[in-house]
Amino acid sequence: MDRVDDVLARVREAGGRVTSTKRAVVTVVSSNADAHLTAEQIAEQVLRNLPDSHISTVYRILHELEDLGIVRHVHLGHGPSTYHLAADHHHHAVCESCGVVVELPSDLYDDVAARISADHGFELDVPHFALAGRCRSCATA
Amino acid sequence: MDRVDDVLARVREAGGRVTSTKRAVVTVVSSNADAHLTAEQIAEQVLRNLPDSHISTVYRILHELEDLGIVRHVHLGHGPSTYHLAADHHHHAVCESCGVVVELPSDLYDDVAARISADHGFELDVPHFALAGRCRSCATA
DNA sequence: ATAATTGCAAAGTCTTTGCAGTTTG
DNA sequence: CAAACTGCAAAGACTTTGCAATTAT
After folding, report:
1. Per-residue flag: B63 CB under 7 A of strand C
2. What per-residue string of b and e applies to B62-77 under the rule 16 or more CB within 10 Å gives b?
3. Which domains, and CATH codes, for chain B?
4. What is the pTM of this model?
């Protein structure tokens, strides 16, 4: 029923095993659907309940979930990657001044993608990197 | 007259000093206008003539030139940054399969930028990260 | 002179990996 | 039981930094 259980079922289907850390990672990512959590932030939350887990395990689980198409990672800037559910389509713009993340509609690149496809035969992926600029308050300040 | 000399003049204007490594870095970047050189590749070329230079110096010079608006760095993917003259406007798409870099017109994002500005008051910078996808040959293969 | 710059080695950040022991199915 | 998974410590990739010595102006 739960999104978490659905995900864990998919993990098992793929031959993976369900461990407590894996369950915790899935739970954290699922309950922060709109957040842009880094591996470190995810690990921090996981370790609150499972103090013997390790961030390297979190990285491995995140990769597994990404291979299964459940999770995606996005680069908001020069720092660490951030992770979110793949089902959650949206694009991002990050203010270089204050760091705020603006969520953008998922059709944002449709015209650009069509143009690149027509002109170059290049088929664009869902962008993997955020746009950068200045948010309203910082732009006028 | 030379673009290299123009750049070095600007460096001096800004209070910087012209050293042999700096001249070499500027020369390498200027003579590879369309390439997407990493710091390591730039250092490699510099070291051919100045074997006692060091890549950390190249990084420092690249930063200085970037602060002066002469050079920009772009991330083509998950690897190292690539550097090119700022005067050389263009955007990039990288094939995730074969790695080829497609250069895209500099007005590519104009509509997207206008839309984000109108809807969110967010003023987009020149993108700093390449788009990713599949080039014509890899998309059809 | 004197402030900028350098080479070097060390540290920093984020992520991956080898391995020996543990756990899941 | 066998394969998957784990914690840990170490390594890896890329970049930055502290410092004492050197160099440009």
Report:
1. no
2. bebbeeeebbbbbbbb
3. 2-85 (1.10.10.10), 91-139 (3.30.1490.190)
4. 0.91
